[in-house]
Amino acid sequence: MRHELYRRPVFAVAPMIDWTDRHCRVFHRVLSRRALLYTEMIVADAVLRGDRDRLLGFDAVEHPVALQLGGSDPAKLAEAARIGQDFGYDEINLNVGCPSDRVQSGTFGACLMRTPELVGECLAAMRSAVDVPVTVKCRLGVDEQDPEEALDRLADTAVAAGVVAIWVHARKAWLQGLSPKENREIPPLDYDRVHRLKERLPDVFVGLNGGLKTVAEAMPHLESLNGVMMGRGAYQTPGELALVDASLAGRTPEASDWSAIIDAMCDYAARHVAGGGKLHHVTRHMVGLFAGLPGARRWRQMLSEAGTRSDATADLIRHAFAEVDTGSPERAAA
């Protein structure tokens, strides 16, 4: 039976290492109430041995939020999944797609595309340890693998293990010869392959990731797939996320209430600074918010430069916003 999270079309924000922290997720949640948010990939060993509050802590406003784990040891992943559930995460996801040097040295991430049976063991162990949904995010294959065979084998073992959803980055990963950055850009996208997987597994939730830069570009895929996931587009032009809720509801998105968004982020940033944090922990995620609007360059400049000062406060966000012409009536009257 499909879990409540996955009974309707899902728009998710892809996790990115060293970027998708709790401040980023709060910002994305302010922009969209319905988007499914993910943590960056956290290695199971780190969850078991590290500072769990620092690694796993999140603000209640972030729900629904999923914990993405990395690893290849079923027992460790099961324990890490249980800990994640105890922290309150709505979903536990296994990363079988990251091509970074770190995952290659640890033989997990995209490397696991070569060992689908081990992936199945990991997912089954995680599934037995928690009550929340267990999902998987993978690639079409790695290196010389045939994407038809590799993706089908991975998907079949995942379904047999009891996963609720399969998220597919519609590119192969070249572990030999390409950097992690190149692996996000050079291997050609093959959306049709993901659609063929859905045709073969009509009763399984299949979501698409890779190369989607705008909500308008992503939404047509929901006519035949169950979910779409936006990565760099959500980070570089986060204002796109303000279009998600209306688009999922089948409505034409209206002009964003930028003032309300700024108020919410100022309140959050003020609490963070009052608790001993730095303003740039929050504002570094906001620099692309007004991309394409008059004043966006000044906005970026103020947040990037003044926002890093040790004495910077949330008032800087309001001052920077005053430099932006959003074209809204309330801004025109300001």
Distance between the termini: 52 Å
Q: Helical segment tally?
A: 17
Strand content: 5-15%
| CATH fold-level assignment of the largest domain | TIM Barrel
CATH homology superfamily name of the largest domain: Aldolase class I
- The percent range for helix content is 40-55%
CATH architecture of the largest domain: Alpha-Beta Barrel
The dominant shape is: globular
> Overall pLDDT, averaged?
93
Largest sheet: 9 strands, parallel
Record field, number of beta strands = 9
Question: How would you describe what is shown here?
Answer:
The record marks 95, 181, 184, 297, 300 as: Interacts with tRNA. Keywords: Flavoprotein, FMN, NADP, Nucleotide-binding, Oxidoreductase, RNA-binding, tRNA processing, tRNA-binding. Belongs to the Dus family. DusA subfamily. Belongs to the dus family. GO terms for molecular function: flavin adenine dinucleotide binding; FMN binding; tRNA binding; tRNA-dihydrouridine20 synthase activity. InterPro entries: Aldolase_TIM, DUS-like_FMN-bd, DUS_fam, DusA, tRNA_hU_synthase_CS. The protein has 334 residues and is an alpha/beta fold. It folds into 2 domains: 4-248, Alpha-Beta Barrel (TIM Barrel); 258-333, Four Helix Bundle (Hemerythrin (Met), subunit A) (Up-down Bundle), CATH 1.20.120. 43% of the residues lie in helices and 12% in strands. It is built from 17 helices and 9 strands. The protein has helices spanning 22-31, 44-49, 52-56, 74-87, 101-106, 116-129, 147-161, 180-183, 191-200, 215-218, 232-236, 244-248, 258-274, 279-283, 296-305, 315-321, 329-333, and strands spanning 10-13, 37-38, 42-43, 65-70, 91-96, 134-139, 165-169, 205-209, 227-230. Strands 1, 2, 3, 4, 5, 6, 7, 8 and 9 form a 9-stranded parallel sheet that branches. Strand 4, helix 4 (74-87) and strand 5 (91-96) form a beta-alpha-beta unit. It is globular and about 55 Å long. The N and C termini lie far apart (52 Å). Mean pLDDT is 93; it is low at 329-334.
